[in-house]
C-alpha cells in the first residue's frame, strides 16, 4: 500500500462535490447528500458497514463471518483443515466484488478491511490470535482479504 495515497484521487464525484462546495465539506457531508438525493440507500450503507465491521460467529471452534456460515458444511466435507476452512469461508475477492474500481482504490480498501477485521476479531475474541491476510498477487490484478486463527 502506498502510504501517501489518497482515496480522493480515485473518487472524482466526491472531489468535484467538495470543490463545488468550496472545500468546506467532508465524507459525512457527502454521505448525507447522497442519502438525501436517494443515491445511497439504507441497504447500501448497512451492507457496507456490515462488511467492514462484520458479525462473527464461533462454530465448532471455527471463527467465521456470520454471512458465510452456510459454506461451512461444504468446506468441511472437502477434507480441509480447520485453518483452510476458515481461510476459504472468510475469503473475499475485492476485484470480483468491485469490478471496474481502480486497483489503487481496491488496494487501499484491502488494507482498511485488514485493519478493521483485525480490530473486530481482537475485540470479540481477545484470547485467540488471528492471521488477517491481504492477498496481492505479483501482477496486482486481483486483491483479496481473508482471516483464520493462528494454530
Automatic annotation (TrEMBL):
Superkingdom classification of source: Bacteria
Protein name per Swiss-Prot or TrEMBL: Uncharacterized protein
Organism (species): Stenotrophomonas rhizophila
Amino acid at each position: 500500500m502506498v502510504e501517501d495515497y489518497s482515496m480522493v484521487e480515485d473518487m472524482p464525484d466526491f472531489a468535484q462535490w467538495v470543490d463545488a462546495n468550496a472545500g468546506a465539506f467532508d465524507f459525512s457531508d457527502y454521505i448525507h447528500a447522497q442519502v438525501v438525493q436517494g443515491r445511497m440507500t439504507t441497504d447500501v450503507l448497512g451492507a457496507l458497514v456490515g462488511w467492514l465491521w462484520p458479525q462473527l460467529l464461533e462454530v465448532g471452534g471455527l471463527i467465521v463471518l456470520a454471512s458465510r456460515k452456510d459454506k461451512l458444511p461444504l468446506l468441511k466435507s472437502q477434507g480441509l483443515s480447520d485453518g483452510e476452512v476458515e481461510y476459504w469461508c472468510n475469503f473475499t475477492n475485492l476485484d470480483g466484488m468491485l469490478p471496474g474500481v481502480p486497483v489503487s482504490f481496491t488496494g487501499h480498501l484491502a488494507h482498511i478491511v485488514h485493519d478493521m477485521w483485525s480490530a473486530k476479531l481482537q475485540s470479540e475474541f481477545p484470547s485467540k490470535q488471528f492471521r488477517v491476510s491481504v492477498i496481492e498477487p505479483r501482477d496486482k490484478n486481483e486483491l483479496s482479504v481473508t482471516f483464520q486463527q493462528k494454530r
